[in-house]
Specification:
By secondary structure, the protein is mostly beta strands. It is 5% helix and 46% strand. 22% of the residues are buried.
Length: 264
């Protein structure tokens, strides 16, 4: 996942002013903002360790880094009342014992850290399985490119949101979301527009199709709009989080259906 947090930056002057043929350079005054807690938590339907990552945002002038927040108390509570405590395994990374999320169950994330409390809820949707993967040749202005196609059957009469995580040779390369507004109940063949022309025979391509709830979809959709996915980028803004108390990030309870395609 692209690990970006957008902050508002005030610029007190223009970079360049041209008057009567003369140029004057104006210094930029970039105001630092107070660090904000950033939380990314995931629960999937696989029997494995689940993770929550807690950090703080950083200022425009600072290098891109993971500002780990340590010493947090992290608890998951299921709709049925079961309680799962997480342990910090590395700075800012919290791990659960092995468990799997259950379709239709709502989970609540509670975090206490630095005298603050943060809460989020997410419900695991019905699972949709990937049927198959195939490749598609696309010609654009005389240039041919190869892309991956995800094939599955969308359930009729249910509002579905999907997240696609594409990895090439074990490296994440695409992260995008769609909904079933125009293909409810249909067989779906969605093309993932990531150019695969540089791959060689034998290279592996993995796609993780996640069914996500509506709030998680809104978060990643806004994130994609900020970065220009699906059209020109819009003015940066923090995507709508489902976490309380002004935290950034998202808590996602989702299903996972993975398949691997091999380049021939």
């Amino acid at each position: 996942m692209k690990n970006c947090i957008f902050t508002i930056i005030s610029i007190s002057a223009l970079l360049l002013i041209t008057l009567s043929g003369c140029e004057k350079v104006i210094d930029l005054e970039l105001k630092d903002s107070e660090p904000v807690i950033v939380i990314y938590g995931d629960i999937n339907d696989q029997l494995e360790n689940q993770y929550v990552r807690i950090s703080k945002s950083y200022n425009f002038t600072e290098p891109n880094k993971f500002n780990a927040v340590t010493g947090a108390r992290v608890i998951i509570t299921s709709q049925a009342g079961s309680v799962i405590n997480y342990s910090e395994i590395t700075p800012g990374v919290y791990q659960s014992p092995k468990f799997r999320g259950i379709t239709g169950v709502k989970y609540t994330l509670d975090i206490t850290v630095e005298g603050q409390k943060f809460t989020a809820t997410s419900t695991m949707p019905e699972k949709v399985f990937l049927d198959s993967l195939n490749f598609r040749e696309v010609s654009f202005f005389g240039k041919n490119s190869t892309h991956l196609v995800a094939n599955f059957h969308d359930p009729l009469g249910i509002q579905n949101q999907y997240r696609y995580l594409l990895s090439v040779k074990n490296k994440a390369v695409e992260d995008l979301v769609t909904e079933d507004r125009f293909n409810d109940g249909n067989k779906v063949a969605n093309t993932i527009y990531h150019d695969l022309n540089d791959l060689e025979p034998g290279d592996d391509i993995e796609l993780d199709l996640q069914c996500i709830d509506r709030n998680v979809y809104k978060y990643y959709y806004a994130f994609g709009q900020n970065s220009g996915e699906g059209g020109p980028p819009i003015a940066p803004a923090n995507p709508p989080s489902n976490i309380s108390n002004g935290a950034l990030g998202i808590f996602s309870v989702h299903t996972s259906s993975k398949k691997v395609a091999k380049v021939k």
